[in-house]
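# step 3/5: fold
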Amino acid sequence: MLHNTWRGYSLLCAALLAAVSPLYSPTLVLAGAIIWLTVLSASAVLPRRARNQSLGLLLLGLIGMFYSLLYGASISWLKLVQSNTVLLSMLYAVSFLSLVASPNATSKQRRLPTGRRGLLSTLLATHLFGAIINISSVIMVGERLKAYRAIDLHLVRSLSVAFGLCALWSPFFASMAYTMALVPGMDLYTVMLMGMPISALGIALLYWQSRHTAAGLTGYPLQGRSLVLPSVLALIVIGAHELWPHWPIPIIIVIASLCIVNLILLLERRWHLAYQHCQQQLGNHTSTSAIFLAAGVFATGLGQLLQVMPISLPFADYGPSQASLVLFFSLVAARLGVHAIIIMAILNPLLSTLNPPANLLAMTYLAIWGIGMSINPVSGTLLTIQGQFGIKGSHLARTNLGLTGLLYGLVCGAFFLYSI
C-alpha cells in the first residue's frame, strides 16, 4: 500500500512537471525520468502480460538502436527519456476526472429510463463518460445497472463498442494523445470532426441492432454532468489552444483537467477524494506506463533501424485505398491479440517514409485503436469487462466481429470522403 501511494504521488509530480514544460523545457526530461524510475520500481509487481510485452518491446527497440549506432546513426538519449511523457501525463491528469464525473447522491435517486429510451441513454452515457474518464465509464454504468438487470453478453457488447468509439474523436483518450505524438502534423479539430460522425453512426447501428430486445430493460440516465463536463472541458481546451497555439494540446488537457477537478471538489467539500485517488488509484497506472515507455523505445529503435536498412513497402504513396488496407490487416492483428500501441509503433516508422497526409494517417491510427479494442480478446477493455462482470473476453471479441465489419466499412468510407 505504501509503495502504491508513493508511486501515485510520483506520477502526479511528473504530470505537474510536464504541465509547466512549455515555460521551462528541462522539466519535461525530469518528468520522463520520474516516470521511468516509478515504473522500474514497480517492475516486480506488474501484471505478467504487461511485463512480458514491455520487456519484448524494450529488447527489440534496444537491438535496433545499437545496430543502427554501428552504422553511424545518432540517438538523442534525452529525447528517449521523455518519449511519451506528455501522453502519460495527460492520462494521469484525466484519471482524476472520475472523481467528479461519477453520479452524485441526487442523480442516483433519479428514476432510471427504460425501454428503447433507456437503451439509447445507456449507449450515449457510456460514450460521453468514456470520452473523459476512459474505461471507468463501462464499470460505472455496468455496476449501476447491475442492481436492476442481469449483466449479459448483449449488454456488455453494447458497452464495449460504445466505449471503443470514443477513441475516434475524444481528445481526452489515450488513442488521441498517442496519435498526436506519432503524427505531430495532424490537425486535431479536423480529425475530431471526421471521427464524431462515425461514432454517432456506430451508436446508431448499436441501437438499431438492439432495439427489439430493449422492451422493459432499465437503462442508465443521461443527465447532469454526463452532458456538461465533456462540453466544458472541450470548450476550455479549444479556447486555450486558440490563445496559446504553441502549447501542446495534451499539456492543456493536463492543466484543464486538474484545475476543473480541484475546483469542483473544493466547492463540494470533497477534496479528500483527490488524496485518496493519489494514494489508492493513480499508482495503478504503472502497467500502462510501462507499455507506453517500452513502445517509445521500440518505435525509436525501429525508426533508427529503417534509416540504415530501408524497407520497401508494397505501395509508394498513402491514400484512402492504402489506409483501408492498413486498417484491415491491423484489425486482423488486433483480433490475434496484438495491442494497438504495438501495431501503431510498428506502422509509424514504415508509413512515415511515404510522407502520408497527416490527418489521414491519424484517422487510420485512431480507427485501429477504437475498432480493434472491441475484437482484441486481451485488450484492456475486454479484460476489464471479464474481471468485472465475468464474461469472457474471447467470447465478447467473437460477438463483436459482425459489428466491427460494419464499422470498418464506415471508416473506409470516411477515408475516401476525406480524400475527395
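# step 4/5: annotate
The longest helix spans residues 48-70.
# step 5/5: archive (pending)
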